[in-house]
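Hey,
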Amino acid sequence: MSGYKRPKVQLHKEFLYLNHETIINSLSAFEAGKVDEILEKVSEAREGGLGGTVGYGPVKANASKKKASNVEEELTRSRTNFSAFEAWSHHLTEASAFGELDAWDVGTRNEIAVGDTIRFKAVVSLSPVQQLFLTFIDYANQAADQNSIFKQPAAQLAETKKQARMMAGWMRGRGEGKSIMVSIQPLGVPAPRVSARLDEDYIVSGTQSVEGEFTVIAQVESLINEGEAIPAIRVLRETPPTSKETDVITEALAGFIEPAAALGVELTMDDITLRYPGVVLHPIAIYR
């Protein structure tokens, strides 16, 4: 006799990542009235929800109003984004517009096409390069603390800080935002390699949550061809990667393989440069 009765349906979703702008734009394109309906319902909930003031005197009352207003605005955004996702996901499911993975190997990889929107179960984790960056930046902060067991003398610390600043710069996406490189293993299968960049503006749960089994919805951005090489990170972000950029980044990151091992991070040349039959995804939603 089983000691656990599974739920008949999974209604709750805990989001790691939600690109709400892509979802709302897409939903507007094929069902514009649905976005207006969501906004109307959220507005009605807002008007009947948070209100009133707390505190004594005009200063405290105004501060309370401002705080309540900020909370209300955040709730409004969240309700809109999650409602839009449910409507968008339902529409694509009903239209059979999601590609589904029943297996993951080179043959399956060759069946998908750039532009396909796919939904699948996967193990998601920080890429080794990303893990190195975050670990080294944290280490550099510790090295500057004279009370830390990782403290360094001034001469050595200057070089450590320089390298940490360089890594922080490499983590930036377009503009000043930060992007997080992740490895995705469809159905828990590590090859062919699947990579994606998460824009920090759409990370819901924080980078510390980027580890574990999730449902991934993403659009296929690139299928790496034979003989093609894509750097795991980008420095020249406004143009497609060139062979020169790939060579420079590969050489620079290769110099971190041994230091990465000293920090407990296993980094290989395959982590530094993405090659055939690798796949690059544009993530839309990651949740469990």
